[in-house]
Backbone:
């Protein structure tokens, strides 16, 4: 199996780390959906990362669908979560989506074309997700292979790097503690967020 995408994508990184943390064999091929659009389109015509290319040529996309497929194949055990775990994972994935939307709005669009009301809405949604996660993560059992712990730590690192200064770091000590624990593990360091 080949996983296509860049490790600065929280969606790509969550698949890579989820697979590696359960010893699922795969090869990571770092192709960008932006700078290598044409090359990426040879793998997946709709150019979405992550894309998982199976040995029979089937291409899977969407990080959750990829993990779900592997779970059904009994290669992974990601989704034995409590209702609280699913709630936290949902909030975490919305946070990831909002963070990526903010980056696209501010980095792909000229400043005079950006929509202030949309940016404000996206940041408000992100902040609300952070508040709900911070409140709920305090009582959540920490485990380095847990899908909530993996995804939340990855999304937080993405936010620190791409939304610097926009989400107050002091307000979320429990999230930061979890992120630091996870980022120090071997598998997180093997698939580290790329530093410029
Ligand atoms: N819900 C998707 C989101 C994936 C996503 O938006 N990936 C970005 C890279 S971070 C992408 O492919 N962007 C290019 C595009 O949307 O055209 C997932 O969980 O995989």
Residues:
């Amino acid at each position: 199996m080949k996983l296509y995408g860049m490790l600065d994508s929280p969606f790509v990184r969550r698949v890579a780390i989820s697979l590696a943390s359960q010893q699922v064999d795969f090869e990571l091929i770092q192709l960008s959906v932006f700078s290598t659009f044409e090359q990426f389109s040879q793998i997946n015509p709709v150019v979405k990362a992550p894309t998982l290319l199976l040995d029979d040529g089937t291409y899977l996309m969407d990080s959750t669908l990829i993990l779900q497929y592997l779970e059904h194949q009994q290669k992974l055990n990601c989704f034995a979560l409590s209702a609280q775990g699913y709630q936290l994972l949902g909030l975490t994935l919305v946070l990831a989506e909002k963070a990526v939307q903010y980056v696209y709005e501010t980095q792909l669009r000229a400043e005079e074309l950006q929509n202030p009301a949309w940016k404000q809405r996206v940041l408000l949604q992100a902040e609300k997700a952070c508040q709900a996660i911070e409140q709920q993560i305090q009582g959540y059992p920490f485990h380095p292979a847990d899908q909530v712990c993996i995804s939340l730590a990855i999304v937080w690192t993405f936010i620190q790097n791409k939304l610097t200064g926009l989400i107050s770091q002091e307000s979320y000590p429990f999230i930061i503690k979890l992120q630091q624990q996870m980022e120090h593990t071997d598998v997180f360091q093997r698939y580290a967020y790329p530093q410029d």
Q: What stands out?
A: The CA atoms of residues 65 and 155 lie 18 Å apart. The mean pLDDT is 97. The domain at 2-72 is CATH 3.40.30.10 (Glutaredoxin). The pocket of glutathione is lined by residues 9, 11, 33, 47-50, 62-64, 100 (CB under 6 Å).
